[in-house]
Design brief:
This protein has 198 residues and is α+β, with helices and mostly antiparallel strands. The chain is 18% helix and 25% strand. Strand 4 and strand 5 form a beta hairpin.
């Protein structure tokens, strides 16, 4: 009996030792499921691309586009900025003119409009207007004391692919008016936001 009990005890001890050895080889105090989820959560996440910047300045040919229209001979007018003055009495529209055609453009004089009383109008943006469609009011480019327009002047022919910054200043519509139509001869209307005074 004693020998049989001794053998049984030895067998139980051997089986326990084997079980403990198998557990310690597999188990590092973290269950399999937890280890798998841990490896997933610690993996580095791919970098997200940053959002494109749409706040470039009005005259640098950047990404800021309020409206864009194409006129005669593949000339593209891009409105890049509209700002009310601090006094709220005027609005300045900034834009670019780009010749997207394959030949030089010599029709700049059309942009000066038909008001012969404006000094130097033939090579300027004196013909531009701003229309408050909600109140059926049209605003013309402001003039200085010498009769010249408060706008881009001394414009010249545009070579193929050439782009120039331009501007025009108008009396400001009422503060409640938040959009208006900018119109330059030979171009369709461009609808632009007016915003509040700065």
């Amino acid at each position: 009996m004693t020998i049989r009990n001794s053998l049984r005890t030895a067998g139980v001890l051997a089986a326990s030792t084997l079980a403990l050895t198998a557990c310690s080889a597999d188990d590092t105090s973290v269950p399999q499921k937890d280890r798998a989820s841990e490896s997933r959560t610690t993996a580095p996440e791919p970098e997200q691309p940053s959002a494109p910047d749409h706040t470039t300045g009005p005259d640098d040919g950047g990404d800021r586009v309020l409206d864009q229209v194409t006129g005669r001979d593949s000339i593209v007018l891009t409105i890049t900025g509209v700002e009310r003055s601090a006094s709220g009495k005027s609005v300045t529209v900034s834009a670019t003119l780009k010749n997207t055609g394959t030949k030089g453009f010599f029709g700049i004089s059309a942009y000066g409009g038909t008001d012969a009383s404006i000094t130097g109008r033939m090579h300027s943006l004196a013909g531009a207007t701003l229309t408050d469609t909600a109140n059926s009011l049209r605003y013309y480019v402001l003039r200085d004391t010498a009769g010249g327009c408060l706008c881009s002047t001394a414009l010249r022919a545009l070579d193929a692919g050439e782009m120039v910054p331009v501007f025009a200043q108008f009396p400001a519509p009422p503060a409640s008016v938040r959009s208006a139509d900018f119109q330059l001869p030979t171009f369709p209307n461009a609808t632009i936001p007016l915003g509040a005074a700065r």
